[in-house]
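Hey, I'm writing a tutorial for new members on how sequence and structure tokens pair up, and I'd like a real worked example in the thread rather than a made-up one. If someone can provide the structure for the chain below, I'll link this post from the tutorial.
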Amino acid sequence: MEDLLYIERINKGRLTSMSDDRELDSQVRMAMPLQPGTGERIELMLTFLRIVEAGSLSAAAVQLGTTQPTISRRLQMLERSLGLRLLQRTTHTMRLTQDGERCYERAKELLAGWARFESELKGAREEPEGILRVIVPHAFGQERLIGPLARYLRQHAGMSVEWLLHDDRAIQDYIAAGIDCAIQVGEVTDPGLIAIALAQVPRIVVAAPDLLNGRPVPQDAAELVELPWLALRTFYRNEVLLTHSVTRKRKRISIKPRFSTDSLYALRSAAMQGVGVGIGSHWVMTEALASGQLIQLTPEWQAEPLPVSLVYPYARFYPARLRRFIDLIRAEAGVIFGGMNEDGAIR
């Protein structure tokens, strides 16, 4: 039922399974009648939507597990009840009339609204099943988010999860890729995505002590210019922008990286080996700083913190598997991201 009700995916041409079709069809038929004949009209609307989405009466019949004459009869009944011609058919083609186009759009809205209403009534009794597909950043996805993921799977025995590690924010077409949601570090620029703010990740400048060759630890951003650099391609490549924590003055520094990567872990490892200076999330550098393998440079000059968001495509209805995951991540955001201080940054 969840996949069929995920109307936006249907709009993109992704057909759901026949079992889901039958489940929704059965569910709507069993729903409380509002007026005499309402249940029948809902069934006719469902059939009409399936005809349009499938592209033909015969394909719709296969998907709904019935016969083509039955599908044709339902279409005729709907057209008679509305007093409108919805489809123009010839031997080889089928296309929506102008009235059919309006009917198609309104039918999607009405059925999505009914599904949403029914889901709200069910509330917590609806148990998710199936596969949840999530994109997560490498660092968070291998450490901070594994605990909540394990709890999600323990709570919902019928669920499986595809956990896809990506730091590339260019993966935006979540619907086409079959992705339910993503944890994204950095600004969300796609207007087609809903973004739930989770945290702000502080970033610091670090290097191995040996890189300084006995020189004093740089205190001003200008002192970093002559040092070899590492680049985290997801967020900076040829220049860095640092802000003074007190005065809020900014300095932009051009760099020529000796090493570039899209992995925060690789950047940390390269910094620990003395390859160059790097900027990374404070929480990833904590252990290396405590052990003395890394030191923080220009402690009063830092890169702007990065927002962390849970993002997912806009839709009129969201399946239980996604809603439960969103609820869990929102509820545990403080624990996942190490606790929040007054500025919303990770402690």
